[in-house]
Specification:
The complex is a heterotrimer. Chain A is α/β, with parallel strands linked by helices. Chain A has helices spanning 44-51, 74-79, 97-102, 117-131, 147-159, 177-192, 204-210, 233-241, 298-306, 343-347, 354-360, 363-366, 375-388, 405-417, 435-451, 462-468, 492-499, and strands at residues 4-15, 18-29, 33-37, 59-64, 67-68, 82-85, 110-111, 114-115, 165-169, 196-200, 213-218, 221-227, 262-270, 278-283, 287-291, 313-318, 323-325, 336-339, 423-427, 454-458, 471-476, 479-485. Chain A has two domains: 4-241, 3-Layer(aba) Sandwich (Rossmann fold), CATH 3.40.50; 262-499, P-loop containing nucleotide triphosphate hydrolases (Rossmann fold, 3-Layer(aba) Sandwich), CATH 3.40.50.300. In chain A, a hairpin with a 2-residue loop joins β7 and β8. The longest helix of chain A is centred in the last third of the chain and has 17 residues, at 435-451. Chain B is mainly α. Chain B has one domain (47-267, 281-295). Helix content of chain B is 75%, strand content 1%. Chain B is built from twelve helices and two strands. Chain B has helices spanning 8-28, 35-60, 68-83, 88-111, 117-136, 153-173, 175-185, 187-192, 197-223, 234-244, 257-276, 281-312, and strands at 141-142, 225-226. The longest helix of chain B is centred in the last third of the chain and has 32 residues, at 281-312. Chain C is mostly helical. Chain C has one domain: ABC transporter involved in vitamin B12 uptake, BtuC (Orthogonal Bundle), CATH 1.10.3470. In chain C, α5 (103-129) packs antiparallel against α10 and α11 crosses α12. Residues 1-15 of chain C have low confidence and may be disordered. Classes of the chains: A alpha/beta, B mainly alpha, C mainly alpha. Chains in contact: A-B, A-C, B-C.
């Protein structure tokens, strides 16, 4: 056990009825990079939250060397020299960069109870220097930084404690090529001084390249831990998904198979912030995929198309009924279905019933004479979604909070399918659902395509975009960088090369 | 899979009602049950209900209208100034329109300019009250005596029934009501399904203002004129009635008209009971304040328990 | 890649000091010009030492109340019982000063004690019951008003009125002592809010509660500190108010809520100036401007109580609009 720096044993964590972690054990060796991988919802983030003191475990043990480790808060984790860069946390925008780095640990800069800002800034500068990080002015507000700069600040925070164990959760996707190289140098430095790194990334190639050992999770359970020499990309995929993923999971054909009729046209649209000059066409029966790094603007394009984000330039035309929206107008919603990225925050009223959530998306359709909306109709559509889309729930009156992520997503998708919309905007439709539901959703998408429904698919998961789209637009720096057709042969390598 | 739902949020107000009944019958004996007292209770309950119906549209979406009392006085005063000589129907229409107009301004401030509803309507509370003093020059304005007819049981009852039906229809069975409740559940979600939340929020304030205008007419009809102090702390009484009736403070789909009626009844019984027991004004305020905190806390707890229950099933 | 590099180096320089300077100069012009114009209109009645010092004297209470909001409201707590606490605290301070013969020291001691205790009580009950702060504030305001009224009617039943300072402890409400108090208050507020761990934590909670919590800010502890610090400033506000007016009558029917309006409008105005001036300093300016507004109205012959109230309400609304100008989130 001498060369083990950190280990977790039989970790368990449940959210409601979902078992996010089920007896997970893992050992991280000194001076090594340990990779952690699994599909969305496989429990990676839960495990990391417990290690970094952000979530309390239900049961299980953790050890640093041989000493038991019980973090009660992120600060105790830092005090035990475990530094974490979390995937979706962000910074306190209203405070300076330096304050963000030392928040909760500010007392060390006290002089007569007053914080010595000079010392604080100097300390930050010396951390930059020590790790050769790009310098971000410690005095300015975190709110004025770009996504990449924010990530660097989070990394600085994690490095400020001289970590024994550095945890990096999906950090590389947000970093530019240069910064990535700096990060890899830092990782080498840590390894050389016998420290360890736990890294999570969706990029299999990168993971295989960086790690010494990889642990694979699936549905909250550990599948296995293997030395990197014994793994390949395809064997990793197989271990993650648990079965041969090629088969009928995605589309088998490689043809551009859709009608030439344009149903939706974006003409040079910009929102003045996240995307500029986006022009694309969606045809009847076509699946158009949008992909890009996390700040490339693809999710915002989806919002603009549905009409929840105002434009500052360009226009969007819906062929049916010849509806058009120009700048600063939000009138497009009509005639489309939209599954936004963040299911529980943007799409569903989690504490409300299934039927109300379904009805919310079709209030105009439910209206009778004098605008009367009958409760029987609301119950009717609730029941129909449950039945047609195989939602596992007691009845249509229960709160969504009591459903699993996959079942919530079925409600989310089902309420639009029920209305037979011609155009669907699906933003990360399989985020946080299990493999079964994922296959089910892909299946529905393929059927819809056959029926002539047009789909705008936005996703951070390249295999999904590649596996389903007729046309793929790759975004970079808020713009469309390149367009690929299915018939040209889509590969992850080609797309990643354009994205970076 | 049997549905045995004991809804604590309904049980609580009823339990409270029974306790009040027992306490006041012991304290006041027979006088509590006299016809006169029952009439007083119903009399004070009607404007509370009507004010509450309007307020519910605003509270359901998680906002608040603190200006109701001042709006009541303002619509009554401006209505009286504009239509003192006219018949009661003209006054009725004018007051409702003025109330709705004030509601529109509130709605724009909250939805378009994003001023938090409590700040915006608190500011309206002083603005409108000072306008009332300016308009009335600080004295009572009398209107045509025909208005007193509206205070008869028949016409008052009719107005109450119609208002209740309209409120139930609008709140429980239309897009407006459904959207208002959904905004209370999660406004971001409403934006993302394509609802025009700004417009709905504004309309909710307009409806609230219109009901306040109606309450203003009923108040005029009771005293035959307009007193610059009328409606003072009306919004608090309405809010107490709404929250004591079991409407969640943050709104949402558990808001309903029935809860308002129960709450208004409760509040009116409490008030008449306190008057009969010769409680002084500070005691009344103390009890109301404590009741507000305790009932809101209990109903929050009850709602939380019922959600936990469903998720365990 | 060059693109990203550029953006980093641009931000490295920070908000360029030039634009900040211009902003401040512009702001100063916007603030000073109206004074000069109005002064000319009123034949020089505004910019006299006497008039300005009386405006200042009547703003001191609101300034301290606004600093109290700095600590309290920043964490997301809109406590509307502050006005009722101000009245109670002032009266207790008065009793300490007069009946216990403790003078100014007693006035401050009593006021601060009551304010801190009641704000702490509010925090404890709120965190226990999870009631939204504004509605809890309304309930608490009614309870505290009732307590004040009990005291009032008790005194009346004994043929007296609530405590009056007479000529005890009247200095802190007047010039030049109040100048010193404001100076000390400003230094304290500035240091506590900007340069202590507690201040950092309070601001972090106000900016993004979830992230702050994840980064290890102890929410419960920070809320407790914000109540204590807010309570101290509120206590000084109560003492100054009592000292200035000698007798403060208890109110009913939530009229106490109106007491916080100047402070609230000033605070909202200050928040919208926050980009150019530190919030704690902006509060002094904001309150002074708002108090001047009423001073000008009075000099122009507008009677207090009617149109002045209207203007007060409008000031709150406009300050609210100004402070929310760039806000994109959901507002209830």
């Amino acid at each position: 056990m001498k060369n083990i720096l950190f280990r977790v044993k039989d970790m368990n964590k449940s959210f409601g009825i979902t078992r996010a972690n089920h007896n997970v054990s893992m050992e991280i060796r000194k001076g090594e990079v340990h990779g952690l991988i699994g599909e969305n919802g496989s429990g990676k983030s839960t495990l990391i939250s417990m290690i970094s003191g952000m979530a309390e475990k239900d049961s299980g043990e953790m050890f640093i060397g041989d000493t038991p480790y019980e973090p009660s808060s992120p600060v105790t984790a830092l005090e035990s020299r475990i530094g974490t860069v979390v995937q979706e946390l962000g910074l306190v925008d209203g405070l300076s960069v330096a304050a963000n780095i030392f928040l909760g640990r500010m007392d060390r800069f006290k002089k007569l109870n007053i914080i010595d800002n000079g010392a604080l800034y100097n300390e930050v500068e010396s951390i930059y220097k020590k790790w050769n990080l790009p310098r971000i002015n410690p005095r300015i507000l975190a709110g004025s930084l770009t996504v990449e700069q924010k990530k660097i600040v989070e990394l600085t925070r994690a490095l400020s404690i001289d970590p024994e164990l550095l945890i990096l959760d999906e950090i590389t996707a947000a970093l530019s090529y240069n910064t990535r190289k700096i990060l890899f140098d830092i990782m080498d430095k840590l390894k050389a001084s016998n420290k360890s790194i736990l890294i999570v990334t969706h990029d299999l190639e990168e993971l295989l390249h960086l790690s010494d050992e990889i642990t694979i999770l699936r549905d909250g359970k550990k599948v296995t831990t293997k030395r990197v020499e014994d793994l390949t990309e395809s064997s990793l995929k197989q271990l993650m998904v648990g079965r041969d993923i090629e088969g009928d999971y995605y589309r088998a054909d490689s043809t551009d198979d859709f009608s030439s009729e344009v149903v939706l046209k974006l003409n040079n649209i910009s929102d003045g912030e996240n995307f500029t000059d986006v022009t694309l066409e969606l045809h009847k029966g076509e699946i158009v995929g949008l992909c890009g790094l996390s700040d490339a603007g693809i999710h915002e394009v989806a919002e603009a198309v549905f009409g929840v984000r105002p434009l500052v330039a360009g226009d969007i035309t819906l062929t049916k009924g010849n509806r058009k929206i120009h700048t600063d107008s939000m009138a497009m919603a009509y005639g489309m279905g939209y599954v936004p990225k963040d299911r529980d925050r943007q799409a569903l009223m989690v504490s409300d019933s299934i039927e109300n959530n379904v009805a919310l998306s079709m209030l105009d359709e439910l209206k009778g004479p004098f605008g009367f909306i009958s409760p029987a109709k609301i119950t009717g559509v609730g029941k129909k979604v449950i039945k047609d889309y195989k939602v596992v729930a007691i009845d249509e009156k229960v709160a969504l909070a009591s459903l699993s992520g996959g079942n919530r997503q079925k409600v989310n998708l089902g309420r639009w399918l029920l209305q037979h919309k011609d155009i669907l905007i699906l933003d990360s439709p399989t985020r946080g659902v299990d493999v079964g539901v994922k296959a089910y959703i892909y299946d529905i998408m393929k059927q819809l395509k056959k029926k002539g429904v047009s789909i705008l698919l936005i996703s951070d998961e390249l295999p999904e975009v590649i596996g389903l789209s007729d046309t793929v637009y790759v975004f970079k720096n808020s713009k469309i960088e390149k367009k690929f057709r299915r018939s040209e042969g889509l590969t992850e390598e080609k797309i990643i090369e354009v994205m970076l | 899979m049997t549905k045995r739902k004991i809804n604590l949020e309904y049980v609580l107000p009823f339990g409270f009602l029974i306790i009040l009944f027992i306490v006041f019958s012991i304290l006041n004996g027979a006088s509590f049950f006299r016809m006169y007292n029952i009439r007083t209770i119903v009399d004070s309950m009607i404007p509370l209900c009507i004010g509450g119906y309007g307020m519910l549209f605003v509270i359901a979406q998680g906002s608040i209208d603190m200006s109701a009392g001042s709006n009541l006085a303002f619509s009554a005063t401006l209505g009286a100034v504009l239509a003192a000589k006219h018949g009661s129907l003209v006054i009725l229409v004018i007051c409702i329109l003025i109330g709705a107009g004030v509601g529109f301004i509130n709605g724009i401030l909250v939805s378009k300019f994003k001023v938090s509803s409590i700040m915006a309507t608190l500011a309206q509370l002083i603005i409108l009250r000072s306008l009332v003093v300016i308009l009335s020059k600080g004295s009572v304005i009398f209107v045509s005596p025909s208005i007193l007819k509206m205070n008869r049981w028949g016409s008052k009852g009719l107005i109450f029934v119609i208002a209740t039906i309209v409120a139930i229809y609008l709140f429980e069975y239309t897009k407006l009501g459904f959207s208002a409740r959904s905004i209370g559940e999660n406004e971001i979600v409403c934006n993302y399904v394509g609802l025009k939340t700004r417009r709905i929020k504004t309309i909710a304030y307009v409806v609230a203002g219109a009901f306040t205008g109606l309450a203003a007419v009923l108040t005029i009809s009771r005293i035959g004129g307009v007193d610059p102090n009328m409606g003072q702390s009306f919004e608090l009484q309405v809010m107490l009635a709404v929250f004591v009736g079991g409407v969640p403070v943050n709104g949402g789909s558990k808001s309903s008209i029935v809860k308002i009626i129960i709450g208004a009844l409760l509040f009116s019984i409490l008030q008449s009971g306190l008057v009969l027991s010769n409680a002084n004004s500070e005691t009344v305020e103390l009890i109301q304040g404590l009741m507000l905190i305790i009932m809101v806390a209990l109903i929050l707890k009850a709602n939380k328990m019922s959600t936990v229950k469903t998720s365990k099933e | 890649m060059t693109n990203k590099k550029n953006s980093i180096s641009k931000i490295e320089k920070g908000q360029s000091s030039d634009s900040l300077l211009f902003g401040r100069i512009g702001l100063a012009i916007i603030l000073i010009v109206p004074y000069i114009v109005l002064n000319t209109i009123t034949d020089g009645k505004i910019l006299t030492v006497n008039n300005l010092s009386s405006v200042f004297t009547s703003s001191v209470t609101s300034m301290f109340m606004s600093w109290c909001f700095c600590f309290l409201f920043t964490t997301g707590i809109t406590d509307l019982s502050v006005g009722a606490i101000l009245i109670l605290a002032g009266n207790v301070g008065g009793v300490f000063a007069v009946n216990l013969n403790l003078g100014t020291f007693g006035l401050l001691l009593g006021s601060i004690l009551v304010s801190v205790l009641l704000l702490l009580l509010n925090t404890v009950v709120r965190s226990f019951t999870k009631i939204p702060s504004w509605i809890f504030g309304l309930g608490a305001a009614m309870v505290y008003e009732a307590i004040g009224m009990y005291y009032g009617s008790y005194m009346i039943s004994r043929g007296r009125q609530v405590v009056s300072l007479g000529n005890v402890a009247r200095q802190i409400g007047r010039t030049p002592w109040n100048l010193l108090i404001v100076l000390l208050g400003f230094i304290a507020a500035y240091l506590l809010f900007n340069k202590t761990s507690v201040g950092y934590n309070i601001r972090a909670l106000g900016s993004n509660r979830r992230v702050a919590e994840m980064m290890g800010v102890d929410v419960q502890k920070t809320m407790t500190y914000s109540a204590i610090l807010g309570g101290i400033f509120l206590g000084v506000a109560a003492a100054v108010n009592e000292s200035y007016s000698s007798r403060v009558m208890p109110t009913t029917g939530l009229t106490s809520v109106a007491l916080i309006f100047t402070a609230l409008a000033g605070f909202l105005l200050a928040s919208s100036l926050g980009k150019y001036i530190n919030l704690t300093l902006a509060i002094i300016i904001g309150i002074f401007v708002i108090t001047s507004l009423f001073n000008v109205l009075t000099i122009l012959g507008v009677p207090s109580g009617t149109w002045q109230q209207t203007v007060m309400g409008l000031a709150v609304v406009l300050s609210g609009i100004a402070s929310q100008r760039k806000y994109k989130g959901v507002v209830k």
